[in-house]
Amino acid sequence: MRGHGGRTALCMAMALMFIAPLSPAQEKQMDGIPYPALDGGNDTQYWAVIIATGSETRDATDVNDLRTTLIGHGWKEGNIKLLIEEEATKEEILTTPFEWLNESGADADDIILFFFSMHGEQMEDQQPLDEPDGMDEYLIPYDYDRESGNNSMMDDELSVAFDGLRSRNIVIIFETCHSGGMIDGTEDLGKGGRVVLMSCAADESSGPLFIKKRWLFPYYLIKGMKGDADANGDGWVSAEESFYYAEIPTILRSSLLSLIFLLHPFVRLRPQHPQIYDGWPSQENSGAQLKLVNLSWRKVL
Ligand SMILES: [Ca+2]
Ligand SMILES: [Ca+2]
Ligand SMILES: [Ca+2]
Ligand SMILES: [Ca+2]
Prior knowledge:
The chain has one domain: Rossmann fold (3-Layer(aba) Sandwich), CATH 3.40.50.1460. The protein has helices at residues 10-16, 24-31, 56-71, 90-103, 155-163, 216-228, 239-260, and strands at 46-52, 80-84, 111-117, 119-124, 135-140, 153-154, 169-175, 194-198, 208-209, 214-215, 236-238, 275-278, 291-294.
């Protein structure tokens, strides 16, 4: 399960030093990238917010992998915001990325990807009372106080923050325990114009990929984004395709690990079952896929 790591961002900073900055020529080239303009115009922009705290080594690897994968497929470096380790306080998470997106002009036809990698837990449903199972889910930011419970970040609170965005094309990825419950309440995150990818069911924990010091679900999700997940062969990896690519290996590997550790005196692992909420383009008609990664654009970083 998700253990608590150290709290410095040094490791992350060192990892990011190995990402080559884009040359002006590369930046210019990207302006011409044939990404789809969903409103029929040509001003669709792609934005990403990557938030990770609570497990320094795995966070650094996952975050670096996701960031370089997006940049390597044409996403602009300046359109990706990171909140890592001690930067990922409750107030920061709930305000900074959302203000940044709105002030930067992210609008209805833009595509926004959020990635949360944190500890997650459940508590008795708090106001607004919205949960069929009586339990709200909450995330654990850097400044969470375990004794008092201060600074727990409720699914209801996150939902309000997301409602402030103008984009109708939002992908939210949760690598957190109990993440399946981020969409189970009436005030939660499952709304039209969004695809939510969750690492496990509401009553499950989310586990690691031991051999690579990664989190299991994001490892396969990002691996798929690099090309393997393009199931329909259209040269794009959609949010939906990356999920279905990652789903089965995540179930199988977590099941295998749970057997291996069955008799371990301390470590308890259970199979995890990733969940998808598909409300794109609308809740009523979610047949189309939300394209994220253009495989025709590859750049070695
Ligand atoms: Ca609630
Ligand atoms: Ca809720
Ligand atoms: Ca919930
Ligand atoms: Ca595809």
